[in-house]
Amino acid sequence: MTRLLTFLAATMICLAASAQTSREPVNPNATPEAKALLARLYKTVDEGKIISGLHHNQLQMPNYVYDLDRIEKASGQVPMIWGGDLAWDARQVVEIATREYNRGRIVTIMWHVNRPFDRTPRVDFKRQTQGEFTDEQWDELMTEGSRMHKMWLEQVDSISNYLKVLQSRNIPVLWRPYHEMNGEWFWWGDRRGENGFKKLWRMMYDRMVNHHHLDNILWVWNANAPRTIPNDSAMAYELYYPGNEYVDVLATDVYHNDWKQEHHDQLVELGKGKLIALGELGDLPTPENLKTMNKFAWFMVWTGFTHDRYNTLEEIEAIFTLPKVINYK
Question: Is the predicted pLDDT of residue 317 greater than 60, yes or no?
């Protein structure tokens, strides 16, 4: 009996340790600030709450200001999470992110990156981010030592330098690069198999964590809600998932008012206890949506989507004034 009790006690300790470990950042050298942010997000979900956010597109400043004003007009609130994009003007993004973090907001950063061989000073979204990238070019990218792979390394090394500035300022970042990888619209999209997107993500993780020692970033794998739309489809999450050892948060993007419970539940199942989030939104969820989709840690509205044709003032108020929604103010 004593041996049985000892065994059960040891088992419980192991299970508790395992549960604790699963809530740690995947980077074992994560900074105290990154660890604290991840713990804060888990606490948010444990308490049945969700954090609000708004993407800041510095190419569309009037729209962003309009969005802030409209949210505040409707609800008296300001979103807690500030979202930026290192593709457009990385130096400016770093400075704005620093300012917003020092104000007490949470920072998430994405990367609408161009193709590895594009060498223009500013990203051409249609021709580069959404430009053609052949299967042969992809295979070359996946081949270490190739010209394409070296050009890709230059991209990752360059953007890592900007993230290092934020690390030097003790700013943790929810890092969500190569988003919507299960869709058909980006050069890195719909790359299946072990030599597909999974490998790209692992290569980037290795370069940033083990080579550049970027320990201030939490890794947000951000797909699109699966959908079937001609020339605009998004496939099943699991086809592109690199594994829990490379991901801190699983996120999805929801547009076209495509609110389905399965988009939430499939992420929960895939992550096996990992945090999940709404990386980008067009139309806001309803309060009823959030009652059953209750594991999302945050949501972020995309720039320009607070207009009446997407979200009315009443719909904005209904979400941003919910007791469960955590705002900046």
Answer: yes
